[in-house]
Amino acid sequence: MLDLEKEARASYRPRRSLEHQDRKSALETDPKSDSDMDQTKEVHSSTSDSSIASQHNINISASEKCGIDGHGTTDIEAAQIVRTLSVPAEEVDNANIVDWDGPLDPANPMNWPSRVRWTHIMLVSAVNFLSGLSSSMFAPGVPALMSEFHSTNTSLGSFVVTVFVLGLAMGPIVFAPLSEIYGRMYVQHAGLIGFFVFTVACAVSSSLNMLIGFRLLQGIFGSVPLTNAGAIIADMVKQEVRGFAMAMFTLGVLLGPVVGPVSGGFLSAAKGWRWIFWVIAAATGAVSFVCFLTWRESYAPVLLAHKASLLRQQTGNLSLRSKYDNGLSARAHFKRSIGRALKILIYSPIVLTLSIYMGLIYSYFYLLFTTLTSIFEENYGFSTSIVGLAYLGVGIGFLIGQISYARLGDAILRRMTGKSGSTEMKPEYRLPLCIVGGALVPVGLFWYGWSAQGRVHWIMP
């Protein structure tokens, strides 16, 4: 206690000496004003210091017990010493916040080596390629499926293909909040396991209703890679170069549904529609094995929460917490995430407009997939194995679009940021290319609808 008292006196006396010098210089200038000032300061000091003394439960007897008053220290001075010894609560709180060890911390996913980051991006693209592959690879085998289950309902045949997309829409409602609570890696692994299981279930289905149910569940778990892909890339890649990484990921998403019917047509004709699901399951198992070995957690709040937990165990300081820790339970966080997403969708015109835009694009996309098989088989006499090649036209269009976005997206972002006179790169700066793409969609649909006739060459649709 005496050591603390000495430290307090050392920090206290210079301040008092400075105050004395200030009063002395003021007295030389205006003695009368110094008298008034001194009276005012004494009243203010006694009031504030008495308040501090009361806040810290300080009294004269306590000061005497500590030996403070024994050295000729007044009550107000004792309170000032206590105030010097007391650490502000805000500083104590900041000392318990766990953050990265500087801007170059290697544990921060933004600072991972390029090889590690691009390995993650390629794996994300690969699993999304498999998800897209599964959505449409089955399309050429629908006639054989309907024949096996003795059904002539064409609407039901189309629904077997498109119910997968319904699962893609339902999955993010659950898995997106879970990825913010438990991290990207665990949710990704759970999605891959579920996708593998229900792909096998589709292969062994014994009825049309069973197949539709398993296709829905396959789509729900297949949505996990698609839901987390953009977030994983944002965790690792800086905003100014993120466009190229997103283009590489999206390439897998879009090429999967195109390559699927091409390979599915030949496989269905040679081995039957069930082998389509067996091949997808085998590919999913192989890619999942690589992911289990190489994937690392990339979500900063989860990484810092693990770091804080480890430091609490090592130091015994139970007050340590991540800078992202808001004190919410997993259940409360889950509810807030769902509510926040709905609020953003309802109250943000940009998000609502883009959601409608993407919904229309995907609906046209899969409407095209469900009609190409029947149009080219009935109007042009294509066989089951050859009809899948008709989807290559869509794939070429996707490839051109992604290459254009990869080359122009980041350049447009930087140019618009420079024009704004600010360093902030707003997400809206990536939208100009959507205007061009949105204008070309109805042109392509009209072209496809008017040219899909037997008297027009098959290259036109």
TrEMBL record:
<comment type="similarity">
    <text>Belongs to the major facilitator superfamily.</text>
</comment>
<feature type="transmembrane region" description="Helical">
    <location>
        <begin position="344"/>
        <end position="366"/>
    </location>
</feature>
<keyword id="KW-0812">Transmembrane</keyword>
<feature type="domain" description="Major facilitator superfamily (MFS) profile">
    <location>
        <begin position="120"/>
        <end position="461"/>
    </location>
</feature>
<feature type="transmembrane region" description="Helical">
    <location>
        <begin position="244"/>
        <end position="269"/>
    </location>
</feature>
<dbReference type="Pfam" id="PF07690">
    <property type="entry name" value="MFS_1"/>
</dbReference>
<keyword id="KW-0472">Membrane</keyword>
<feature type="transmembrane region" description="Helical">
    <location>
        <begin position="190"/>
        <end position="212"/>
    </location>
</feature>
<dbReference type="InterPro" id="IPR020846">
    <property type="entry name" value="MFS_dom"/>
</dbReference>
<feature type="transmembrane region" description="Helical">
    <location>
        <begin position="275"/>
        <end position="295"/>
    </location>
</feature>
<feature type="transmembrane region" description="Helical">
    <location>
        <begin position="218"/>
        <end position="237"/>
    </location>
</feature>
<feature type="compositionally biased region" description="Polar residues">
    <location>
        <begin position="45"/>
        <end position="55"/>
    </location>
</feature>
<protein>
    <submittedName>
        <fullName>Efflux pump radE</fullName>
    </submittedName>
</protein>
<keyword id="KW-1133">Transmembrane helix</keyword>
<dbReference type="GO" id="GO:0016020">
    <property type="term" value="C:membrane"/>
</dbReference>
<dbReference type="GO" id="GO:0022857">
    <property type="term" value="F:transmembrane transporter activity"/>
</dbReference>
<feature type="region of interest" description="Disordered">
    <location>
        <begin position="1"/>
        <end position="55"/>
    </location>
</feature>
<feature type="transmembrane region" description="Helical">
    <location>
        <begin position="118"/>
        <end position="139"/>
    </location>
</feature>
<dbReference type="InterPro" id="IPR036259">
    <property type="entry name" value="MFS_trans_sf"/>
</dbReference>
<dbReference type="InterPro" id="IPR011701">
    <property type="entry name" value="MFS"/>
</dbReference>
<feature type="transmembrane region" description="Helical">
    <location>
        <begin position="159"/>
        <end position="178"/>
    </location>
</feature>
<feature type="compositionally biased region" description="Basic and acidic residues">
    <location>
        <begin position="1"/>
        <end position="44"/>
    </location>
</feature>
<feature type="transmembrane region" description="Helical">
    <location>
        <begin position="429"/>
        <end position="450"/>
    </location>
</feature>
<feature type="transmembrane region" description="Helical">
    <location>
        <begin position="386"/>
        <end position="408"/>
    </location>
</feature>
